[in-house]
Amino acid sequence: MAGSGRLRVTVWNENVHERREESVRRIYPQGMHAPIAEGLRRELGEHVTVRVATLDEPEHGLTDDVLAETDVLTWWGHASHDRVADAVVERVHARVLDGMGLVALHSAHKSKIFMRLMGTTCNLRWRSDPGGEREVIWTVNPSHPIAVGVPQPIVIPHQEMYGEFFDIPPPDELVFISSFAGGEVFRGGCCFHRGAGRIFYFGPADQEFPVYHQPEIQRVIANAAAWCARVAPANDIPSTREANAQRNWYLSRD
After folding, report:
1. How far is residue 128's CA from residue 35's CA, in Å, rounded to a whole number?
2. Is residue 148 part of a domain?
3. 119 CB-near residues (< 8 Å, 6+ apart)
């Protein structure tokens, strides 16, 4: 963190659906990046600096200078994966191998950068019914730092179904598994290491549902950012409050 004492997170969002679809704009009037950034600021407080970058900015907002000042990059994309320039993908890939963290969200499983890092198709089964269906997120690794302070289970009332088989390499660590009203299950919380970088894939949420407004989901993303940046304490202390205090101590070091 360059001795700043702050975790530097860049929240990258395609920002396409929100501008062209009224149904999505009603849920995310300031873009899907807004509640993600707000959750990071609430959970990490003064110990985080958050910037936002979007697809239509020059170089998609991910210049060499921006990435050099980014400890963790969160990524949400869906409708325009193919519009992401290969040169930018190469730049992000190199930064991950060099130690930058990546939190890939929902349909980022088919982003160029995630597939490049995984080396597989990253295909999965999906179903999107009008009104969605209930998703229940089960913590299967409760001692993992990403699970600290997370309720067991997390319930999402309305969501798009993602199901197995999910064509990814075996995760280095599996933190969450989701079950759906239709009976499907999904490895929706997966940790990977690539080079010096840490990667977390988190299955929620589709653009048609207000999942990123849920505090529990924001909590997972904040925990994931801290884990990817190697500032998350071990999840073996008795309370969330103490875990937060220990994490904040890590973040405040020079």
Report:
1. 22
2. no
3. 169
CATH code, 94 = 3.40.50.880
At residue 128 the predicted structure's pLDDT band, cuts being 50, 70 and 90, is confident
Report d(CA 84, CA 74) in Å as an integer.
15
Average pLDDT, the chain: 90
Residue at 244 is within a domain: yes
Q: What is the strand order of the sheet 133-139 is part of?
A: 48-54, 7-13, 72-76, 101-105, 197-202, 185-194, 173-180, 133-139, 154-159
Instruction: Answer yes or no: is 158 within a domain.
Output: no
Q: Which H or E element spans position 49?
A: strand 48-54
Residue whose structure tokens are 């529990």? 216
Residue 12 pLDDT > 70: yes
Tokens in use for 172? 């280095």
| 210 has a pLDDT exceeding 90 | no
Q: d(Cα 205, Cα 106) in Å, to the nearest integer?
A: 5
Query: What is the DSSP secondary-structure string of 164-233?
Result: S---SPPPSEEEEEEEETTS-EEEEEEEEEETTEEEEEE----TTS-GGG-HHHHHHHHHHHHHHTT-PP
Domain range for 216: 7-122+189-252
* Phi and psi angles of residue 115, each rounded to the nearest 5 degrees, phi first: -65, -35
**Residue 233 in domain:** yes
Gap between the Cα atoms of 54 and 10, Å rounded = 10
The total number of structural domains in the chain stands at 1
Q: If you count them, how many residues does the chain have?
A: 254
Digit-coded pLDDT (tens) for 42-92: 999 888 999 999 999 899 999 999 999 999 999 999 989 899 999 999 999
Q: Which amino acid is at 242?
A: E
